[in-house]
Amino acid sequence: MKLDELLNRIPVSEIIGDKNQEISEMTFDSRQAVEQGLYVAIKGTVSDGHDFINSAIEKGAKVIVCENIPTDIKDEITYIKVKDAAKTLGHVASNFYGNPSSKLHLIGITGTNGKTSTTTLLFDIFKMLGFKCALISTVEYRIDEEVIPSTHTTPDVIRLNQILAKAVSKGCEYAFMEVSSHGIHQQRTEGLQFKIAGFTNITHDHLDYHKTFEEYLKTKKRFFDDLSSDAVAITNVDDKNGNIMLQNTKASKKTYALKTMSDFHGKITEVDFNGMLLNFNGKEFWTTLTGKFNAYNLLLAYAVAIECGFHEDDILPTISKLKRVKGRFETLKSDGGIFFVVDYAHTPDALENVLDSINEIRTKNERLITVFGCGGDRDKTKRPEMGKIATKKSTLAIITSDNPRSEDPAQIIKDIEAGVEPQFYSKYTSIPDRREAIKMAIKFAEPKDIIVVAGKGHETYQEINGVKHHFDDQETIIELARLMSK
Ligand SMILES: CC(=O)N[C@H]1[C@@H](OP(=O)(O)OP(=O)(O)OC[C@H]2O[C@@H](n3ccc(=O)[nH]c3=O)[C@H](O)[C@@H]2O)O[C@H](CO)[C@@H](O)[C@@H]1O[C@H](C)C(=O)N[C@@H](C)C(=O)N[C@H](CCC(=O)O)C(=O)O
Ligand SMILES: Nc1ncnc2c1ncn2[C@@H]1O[C@H](COP(=O)(O)OP(=O)(O)OP(=O)(O)O)[C@@H](O)[C@H]1O
Ligand SMILES: N[C@H](CCC[C@H](N)C(=O)O)C(=O)O
Ligand SMILES: [Mg+2]
């Protein structure tokens, strides 16, 4: 593609060199630069891409997009000065891949919890309705039947455009993607044309990155601020910050809620471990998904489908057929009659929701045992909060490891323990080895007791010191429950 075509409608401050270069590929990583390529220099959290301009040139890059033109300008290289290189990258990537987001219906879901669940439910609904779709999520990326391993919840904007372009070429009409706060902050969605944006909720997470809750909130809001006037913004008004998302958006505004007056209103009529009887805008239906948070996720998915132009008579029977999402409130029962819930709750709010959902369903004759930990090299402030919630809401909490990464597992556990209130000191024990912790829970449990194993959900590894060891909560439960019932 010709450079001037690539720069179509992109504001630039200065160009030095040939504007007619032919571009073979584009990248923001000098290590990936190729002959006749374009390199965008971005300031990151660790290093500054401007320091790697010459290494990109050594690897063959002929066009450099940067915020500061280097002093040692090289012949045959075109330098393009822009105000914001990360922002420019998004628009260049869209142009390079033929603006795929404008050729399908792109739906983005943001919020602290519920993004994977809601996007996956939407993918499944639209697939059942007969459409080819794409999914970009924490668990996996999908282009119709093709599954691509996921590296980020929201990948970088080049990858995003590559996936969307492939989806378009394969005939996908819808793409559902998670929009993480890191993704918004690092402008990974810049230049994408969203048809619908959905907000789930906002609670405590990622403060290691965003520093304050206000900054975190502002970042989420930016996603809605950047929508165009032909987009639709759908927010959860039961969340106290739900309306903030709509404050400055040009998109048409829609609301959903279980408790507050809203355009899409839901009610849980009945709930147990097998599912829920729900009522959406006056129409009742059964779902095998369970727990209040799943009612929210289904309601948002329903709202998106209606805003896409479908009729409730087509959507509700489809929702009724949905299966649970991998690692999200997945239930198992051992031969010995112990009940297990595997859930990806890794934030205080998610853990509280899962335990509340179970407490709402259980008769209180059974005991509730919670096995959980907190990730290393991640927001430390959530640790004591999760310790407090787990001990308060369970009969017994077993604190263990969940991807300690470069941190000392014993220290992470101490940080969690620090949040336990004195009256609950007798309600927990700590076992750093996750397998041993699950084993202890099974030993302690009697028939009908409920064991929640939280934090890892679909993950199949335990990351210790940069090494990912195979570990799967569900697999471990099945293996131990069988061994121990012998
Ligand atoms: C903290 C963070 O988000 N970092 C992301 C960021 O990297 P960075 O800012 O640290 O990059 P850097 O190392 O400072 O480099 C700056 C620039 O110089 C370039 N460079 C660097 C070295 C070199 O030799 N040559 C070169 O050109 C880099 O390519 C980059 O463009 O930009 C990279 C490219 O897009 C991301 O891969 C990387 O994600 C890291 C791996 C990561 O772990 N991110 C997690 C925290 C994340 O993004 N999570 C969210 C949310 C999770 C959720 O809640 O579900 C997600 O969306 O996945
Ligand atoms: N709507 C919701 N409200 C509150 N909690 C939820 C909601 N949906 C799911 N959860 C809880 O949060 C956990 C994570 O859900 P999910 O993976 O869908 O969220 P996510 O936003 O994709 O998270 P991540 O930021 O890690 O990608 C679930 O396992 C469940 O415990
Ligand atoms: N997207 C989240 C997932 C956390 C999952 C939990 N198992 C952990 O490793 O902390 C993060 O990377 O912070
Ligand atoms: Mg996710």
TrEMBL record:
Pathway: Cell wall biogenesis; peptidoglycan biosynthesis
Any single biological process term in GO: peptidoglycan biosynthetic process
Residues annotated as domain Mur ligase central: 109-305
Extent of motif Meso-diaminopimelate recognition motif: 402-405
Annotated UDP-N-acetyl-alpha-D-muramoyl-L-alanyl-D-glutamate binding sites: 30, 153-154, 180, 186, 188
UniProt PTM comment: Carboxylation is probably crucial for Mg(2+) binding and, consequently, for the gamma-phosphate positioning of ATP.
GO cellular component: cytoplasm
Cofactor(s) it depends on: Mg(2+)
Cellular location(s): Cytoplasm
InterPro entries, per database record: Mur-like_cat_sf, Mur_ligase_C, Mur_ligase_C_dom_sf, Mur_ligase_cen, Mur_ligase_N, MurE/MurF_N, UDP-N-AcMur-Glu-dNH2Pim_ligase
Modified residues (N6-carboxylysine): 220
Residues annotated to bind meso-2,6-diaminopimelate: 378, 402-405, 455, 459
Domain (Mur ligase N-terminal catalytic) ranges: 22-97
Keyword field: ATP-binding, Cell cycle, Cell division, Cell shape, Cell wall biogenesis/degradation, Cytoplasm, Ligase, Magnesium, Nucleotide-binding, Peptidoglycan synthesis
Positions that bind ATP: 111-117
Entry-linked Pfam families: Mur_ligase, Mur_ligase_C, Mur_ligase_M
Extent of the signal sequence: none
GO molecular function: ATP binding; magnesium ion binding; UDP-N-acetylmuramoylalanyl-D-glutamate-2,6-diaminopimelate ligase activity
Reactions the enzyme catalyzes: UDP-N-acetyl-alpha-D-muramoyl-L-alanyl-D-glutamate + meso-2,6-diaminopimelate + ATP = UDP-N-acetyl-alpha-D-muramoyl-L-alanyl-gamma-D-glutamyl-meso-2,6-diaminopimelate + ADP + phosphate + H(+)
Domain called Mur ligase C-terminal: residue spans: 327-457
EC number(s) stated in the UniProt entry for this protein: 6.3.2.13
Function: Catalyzes the addition of meso-diaminopimelic acid to the nucleotide precursor UDP-N-acetylmuramoyl-L-alanyl-D-glutamate (UMAG) in the biosynthesis of bacterial cell-wall peptidoglycan.
Family: Belongs to the MurCDEF family. MurE subfamily.
Protein name: UDP-N-acetylmuramoyl-L-alanyl-D-glutamate--2,6-diaminopimelate ligase
Organism whose genome encodes this protein: Kaistella carnis
